[in-house]
Amino acid sequence: MLILNCPYCGVDAEETELSPGGEAHLKRYGPGSSDADFEDYLFQRENPKGVHFERWRHANGCGKWFHAARCTMTLEVFGTYEAQSLEPPKSIQKAISKKRPGWSWREFS
Amino acid sequence: MSNSISHANTPFDGYVTVSEDAPSGMLTLRGDLSSKPFVTALKKSVSTDMPASCQIVHDGQMSVGWMSPDELLILTAYDQVAGLEAGLRKSLGKRHFLVADVSDARVSFTLSGDKVREVIAKLAPVDLAPGHFAPGAFRRTRFGQISAAFWLISETEARVICFRSVAEFMFNQLSTAAHLGGEVDLWS
Lengths: 109, 188
Ligand SMILES: [Zn+2]
Known about the structure:
Chain A has 109 residues and is α+β, with helices and mostly antiparallel strands. Chain A contains 2 helices and 6 strands. Chain A has helices spanning 35-43, 90-99; strands at 3-5, 12-14, 19-23, 51-57, 65-71, 77-82. In chain A, a hairpin with a 5-residue loop joins strand 5 (65-71) and strand 6 (77-82). Chain A is globular. Chain A starts with a strand and ends in a 10-residue tail after the last helix. Chain B contains 4 helices and 11 strands, in the order βββαβββαββαβββα. Chain B has helices at 36-42, 81-92, 116-123, 167-177, and strands at 12-13, 17-20, 24-31, 56-58, 63-68, 71-77, 97-101, 106-112, 138-143, 146-154, 157-163. In chain B, the strands form 2 sheets. Chain B has a 6-stranded antiparallel sheet with strand order 1-2-8-11-10-9, with helices on one face. A 5-stranded antiparallel sheet of chain B has the order 4-5-6-3-7, covered by helices on one side. The radius of gyration of chain B is 17 Å and the shape is globular. The interface between A and B is medium-sized, with 14 and 13 residues. The structure holds zinc ion. Zinc ion is lined by residues 6, 8-9, 11, 58, 61-62, 64 of chain A.
C-alpha cells in the first residue's frame, strides 16, 4: 500500500485517501505550438521502472494537489512536495541520488 | 434554510451508540488564513482561537475545524448561523474570501461508547491507536467510500460529519461497524 505525506496538511495519507493525477511536470503546448510538441504534450508519457514523479490529490482530505517522487518498482517514496513547483526540490533530487545513483527522468538527473 | 429531515430518528444501540445529531449550524470559510490582517478581521466574528493544522478548537459559542490551509469549518447553533454569516461578511469586508452556509448540506453523527476509536478505525484509514489521535485533532478522510471528517470529543465520544445526501449510507455503515458481536477489542 502506498502512503504519501501530504505537504499541505501533513497527514500520512494512505492510497485510498488520494486520487492519482498522472505524470508530474508536464509542459503544456497549446495553440500555436508545433504538431509534434502538441502530440508529445497530449500523449507521450514516461513509464519508468524506477524513479518517477507524479501528481496526486488529497481528495478525501484537505483537497490539495501535490507532487510525489517515488520508485515504481519498490513503491519507496523519496518525498512529496508542493504543486507549485516547476521541478523537484534539490533536497528530493539529492535523496534520490543517494538511493538510486545515476538515476534520470526526463530532464532531471 | 430548508426543512431538514432526519434520516435516523432512532439511535442505533450497538457496542457503540450511533445517533444523528439535531441540525447544527455550519459555515465554510475560505480565505488566506496565513495572513495576519485576515485572521484579525476574522476574529471580530469568531470567538475561538484559530485552529492549528488538522485541529479543532471549541468554546461555549462555536467550534472551528481546520479543513485545509485556506479553509475552516465553523460550527455553531442552527439558529445562530445566519447572524454569524452576516457578521463574517461584515468583518471581512472587501477582502478576498468565501463564506457559505452549509448547515443543510451536511449532517453530523455522534458515536458514544468505550470503543468509539475501534468503530472509526473499522471504516477510516486513520491510525486511531490511543496516543495517535487525541481529542482536539480533526481529520478529513473517508468512511468506507464516502468523504467525511471526524474528531473525538472525549475518549468515549466522537463526532462524524458528511454530506447529507449520503447520511443514510453513513448511518448504516456506522451501525454495522458498531454491531453487537462485532467487537475486535483491539485496544482494550
Ligand atoms: Zn492533505
